[in-house]
Amino acid sequence: MSYPSPGLYDISGMHLPADAFVVIVRTEWNTATVEKLELGCSRILDEYHVRHITMVVPGAFEIPFAIKTFWQINQNNKERPHAFIALGCVLRGDTPHFEYVCHAVTEGILQLNLILPVPTIFGILTVNDQQQIDERTGGIHGNKGEEAALTALKMIAMATNL
């Protein structure tokens, strides 16, 4: 079991660009769960006055394509994001589908982080049951959407200050 470090929520002293812009890409599957992640994510971005929009895709498998396409269309205009945040929930079922989807979205986000000049933050819950969902959407493990937003802010600040 892992717990966030005490410094996770401390972003004091970070310098963010005045025009910081984040694109949240979230899934339609497991809507109630993903909405909780998105609310936590948006709450942090709003707190730090970071402009953001949300794109909705059918499932986690489609997230990497949506991010790559958004980047290709907007990389040279005012809608160029400083970071992407991928939000979704893949719930284990009775078939190997869980493993295939988890592997594909993880590999897709890894590839995006290697090819795009801006970070893609992994905010996908890969869980076994509702208890694990509840623990990660406001329970004992916090809200993973908030953590994804904080990670995005730290990565934007790091890239800006290099």
Could you characterize what this model shows?
With 162 residues, this protein is an alpha/beta fold. It has a domain at 63-76 and 93-124 and 139-162. 44% of the residues lie in helices and 22% in strands. It contains 5 helices and 6 strands. β3, α3 and β4 form a beta-alpha-beta unit. The mean pLDDT is 94.
Question: Could you name the key traits of this structure?
Answer:
162 residues; alpha/beta; 4-stranded parallel sheet; two-stranded antiparallel ribbon; 5 helices
Provide a quick synopsis of the model:
With 162 residues, the chain is of the alpha/beta class.
Topology:
Elements: E1 21-27, H1 31-47, E2 51-57, H2 63-74, E3 83-91, H3 97-115, E4 120-127, H4 130-136, E5 137-139, E6 142-143, H5 144-160
Parallel strand pairs: 1-2, 1-3, 3-4
Antiparallel strand pairs: 5-6
Helix pairs in contact: 1-5, 2-3
